[in-house]
Design goal:
With 170 residues, this protein is mainly α. It is 65% helix and 0% strand. The chain is globular.
Length: 170
């Protein structure tokens, strides 16, 4: 890959990340304005204090984790949902994304232990089979909500609120 291709790829990644963060901020603001933010966060297993790190690290984190799992030969669909959720959150807040991208672009089989905060969980996954999770969560194999998941959760929260209002005594 040439320096120009590297530069274009970096710029494209930054632009895509910026768009993703803007979309997520806009959706969070809409949920807050509707009064549904806390319900959606509770459904997703998140707290308000996690919104900042989620928005800051959301762009590309799950893709990096998926690439890491694929490169190591780990089937993400066979990982327990809780483990994947924890690993995704760790990847979202990881300060070593640049090193991770370099490692993924290379051909080394090992070496991720020096920078990856998920190294222990990855080693566990490599060393033992994982049971198929009973409930893969709202978005299938994704552990953290996407924009579509937020829309579905918002719609479900609205339906619950309407049902509660209709069932409440006048």
């Amino acid at each position: 890959m040439t320096m120009l291709q590297d530069f274009r790829q970096t710029v494209a990644r930054l632009v895509d990340g910026s768009r993703t963060r803007r979309r997520l901020k806009r959706e969070i603001a809409q949920l807050s304005a509707m009064g549904s933010l806390d319900a959606v966060l509770a459904d997703a297993g998140l707290a308000r204090s996690q919104i900042g790190p989620l928005v800051a690290g959301c762009a590309g984190s799950r893709a990096l984790l998926d690439q890491m799992l694929e490169r190591l030969g780990i089937d993400a669909s066979r990982m327990p949902t809780g483990t994947m959720r924890d690993m995704t959150w760790t990847c979202t807040t990881c300060p070593h994304k640049r090193q991770c991208r370099r490692w993924l672009a290379g051909h080394e089989a090992t070496g991720f232990h020096g920078f990856c905060p998920n190294a222990d969980q990855l080693d566990d996954a490599l060393g033992q089979p994982h049971p198929v999770p009973a409930d893969p969560g709202p978005s299938g194999d994704s552990c953290y909500p996407t924009a579509d998941d937020f829309r579905r959760m918002r719609a479900e929260a609205t339906r619950r609120e309407v049902r509660a209002l209709l069932n409440s005594p006048l």
